Amino acid sequence: MSEKLDFLRTVKPFDRLPEDVLAEVAEGLEEVRHPREGVIYYQDETKLRGLDIIVEGEYETFFYDSQQNRRVVEFTRRGECYGGISLLLNKKKSLRTVVAKRHTRVYFLHRREFLALCQGYESFFHFFTTRYGQRMLNEEYAHFVRPATSSGSSYLASDQLFSRRIETLELRPLDVCAAYTPIHEVARRMAAARTSCYFITNADVDGHIIGYVTDITLRDKVVAACADASLPVETIVDAPVVSISSRAFVYEAILLMFRTKTRYLLVETDGEYVGFLSRNKLLTDDQAQSPFIFIQSVKQAQAVPELKRRWEQVPEMVYQLLNRGVKPEIVNQVITTVSDAIALKLIEGAIAELGPPPAKFVYMVLGSEGRKEQTLLTDQDNAIIYEDKANEQRELVRDYFLKFAEMVSDQLNEIGFSYCEGGFMAKNPKWTHSLSHWKRNYVAWMTESNPETGMQFAASFDCRYLYGDPAIMDELHDFLAVELQKPVERFFHHMAVNALQYEPPLTFFNNIRTFAHGAHQVFNLKKTMSPIVDLVRMYALKHRIFATNTGERLEALKVLGIFTEREAHELLQSYYYLMGVRLKKQAAQIINDNVTPDNYLDPKTLTKVEQVTLKEIFKVIADFQLKIKVGFTKSLS
Questions:
Q1: Of 222, 468, 417, which is closest to residue 311 (Cα–Cα)?
Q2: What is the mean pLDDT of the chain?
Q3: 382: helix, coil or strand?
Q4: pLDDT for residue 626
Q5: Is the pLDDT of residue 516 over 80?
Q6: Cβ atoms < 10 Å from Cβ of 13
């Protein structure tokens, strides 16, 4: 007993206890020995019986992340304790996995006695709580200790949101008046009808709808501007009007509202307007919950730090939506809408700071963002096209847009959209040019094509309008539609060859082919998906389809008869199954492991059913590639 007592006098925080109490504690200690490399406790599983005080040897303590990597590795040595924080603050479960590194001898204090000491001696108790506070200053430690979000379903939308069609909703009736109606009369009618929106026609009540007036229109353009209320309402009308089919889903209506910045959507059936939807109504309805409220909060953010915080919340939302069974293609649309909203805020902020642009322009996004298929491992791919100007204005115009692009790009990087390693960004002078220059670029890529340029500039054909004058984008598409009808077989040949370079990771014996990455055997999800993206892009360009999303391209190709119903269905199912696996894996890496996500997947982490599904998907991709070999390369080798 004397040996134990003498030892305890050197151990913190037992050295703070009165001598008689310390003697009583020493008498109750139990000696325990552990073999070398023996696992003593498992993280968040093992319920601790008490406190361990190391006498000889040492404990190695660490957290396992979802890839079974050891994180925050530390050692507890002679005269140190393990288990106090777990007993007090983790419901008695071991916070970390603990392994004995040498033949280790410990004194064991039962948790009943330990808790009694904490209750009876404040300084003893505060030693452990202070230690906990100090440890939580370590960001990585805090990530693994911090309890999982209690929000649970904070980002979950009800199933109806993603399965219910607009035609099942109660639409608001259309209130319309002619463009020549006095403003005060429209205001009177709005008050009488108790509506916040009135639609304006070009002639009479049966005429074509040219715009709308809302209570906000009246406030901003009439009351605040001290305008003459007897003027025709066409002088203050808001335009354009945005419409959607009654067969569309509710989530599609909400996303369209965010993308077009409209608060009202006209609903049409068989070419006729049958009513309208209000964004406020949809967002406050029981069926529309947090993903879209979240998007609204992004649009209302006022500064870069707030936008950064919002983007950091996206992985949690993605994980919950996928867990709930929301389709990966819908989750892609949510991610895209959030990233678009962030980019638009930055673009508008840059214009406010630099002043009005000296020329009409388009800010376009490329690559996965252009295809509306962003994951959580994303960088910037963007470019600027501005209208052609006279020689004396060219330098002024170009200087403005390069400063503008640098401002937007730097802020995107700060928020979490990293710089493109390949330099495919508008801040790079190579990617900010006049429309005539861009036309020459595309002609060169098509007519001077080789395998390297085919691979390097493929993402440039996934260009999507984000901000500016859409007429510029329309002119570029019209130009490409003509150029693609010219003899550019070599261009398509190189696109096909590049798309066939990566074969699905399936061995001759029907096993998944892997390679070493760290301590794991993995395959690359992004590369596995790339043949579908690349080959569908190639077919779309060959048939002058300028939709950028892989699913939308496949649908258009199916309508043209290029793919059968079965082929299109199998490719879509395969692509979005892989997308779902990829998104969920990346979200888990960010949420659970606090690491930068990647595109590698260890098949051993999947269930047998998931592995079989992957193998069938690889066969679908291989069959698709075989069709391309026959059709484009005229070779089966």
A1: 417
A2: 88
A3: strand
A4: 85
A5: yes
A6: 19
pLDDT tens readout for residues 49-94:
999 999 999 999 999 887 788 999 999 999 999 999 999 888 889 9
pLDDT tens digits, 363-388: 999 999 999 999 998 889 999 999 99
CA dist 293 and 284 (Å) reads 9
Half-sphere exposure at residue 496, Cβ-oriented, CA atoms within 13 angstroms = 22
Q: Predicted confidence band at 205 (pLDDT cuts at 50, 70, 90)?
A: low
Quick check: 370 and 464 in contact, CB under 8 A?
yes
What values do phi and psi take at 136, rounded to 5? -70, -10
Write the CA distances from 394 to 61, 388, 401, 434, integer angstroms.
63, 8, 11, 9
Quote the pLDDT of residue 89.
81
Greatest CA separation for the chain? 103
Structure tokens at 626: 């075989």
How many C-beta atoms surround the C-beta of residue 153 within 10 A? Answer: 12
Helices (H), 278-415: 279-284, 290-300, 304-323, 328-354, 367-370, 391-415
Q: How far apart are CA 40 and CA 37, in angstroms?
A: 9
Residue 160's pLDDT is: 57
pLDDT band at 150, cuts 50/70/90?
very low
Contact between residue 307 and residue 412 where contact means Cβ atoms under 8 Å apart: no
Q: Identify whether the C-beta of residue 46 lies closer than 8 Å to the C-beta of residue 94.
A: yes
User: Is residue 535 a contact partner of residue 624, using CB atoms and an 8 Å limit?
Assistant: yes
As a whole-number percent, the residues of the chain with pLDDT over 70 amount to 94
Residues 48, 84: contact at Cβ < 8 Å?
A: no
Quote the CA–CA distance of 111 and 95 in Å, as a whole number: 15
Could you give the 3-state DSSP secondary structure of residue 162?
helix
- Tokens 């998944």 belong to 512
Q: How far apart are CA 454 and CA 489, in angstroms?
A: 12
- Tell me the pTM: 0.70
Record the tokens describing residue 491, joined without a space: 């261009």
H or E segment to which residue 104 belongs:
strand 104-110
How far apart, in whole angstroms, are the C-alpha atoms of residue 107 and residue 148? 33
Instruction: Give the span between the Cα atoms of 573 and 509, in whole angstroms.
Output: 24
| Helices and strands in the chain: count of H runs, count of E runs | 24, 21
Q: Both ends of the chain: CA-CA distance in Å?
A: 81
Q: Tell me phi and psi for residue 235, to 5 degrees.
A: -75, -15
Length of the chain: 637
- Name the residue with higher pLDDT: 340 or 610: 340
| Res 72: pLDDT | 92
Lowest mean pLDDT among 3-7, 228-232, 268-272, 284-288: 284-288
Which distant-in-sequence residues (6+ apart) come within 8 Å of 458 by Cβ? Answer: 495, 498, 534, 537
**Per-residue model confidence (pLDDT) at position 635:** 42
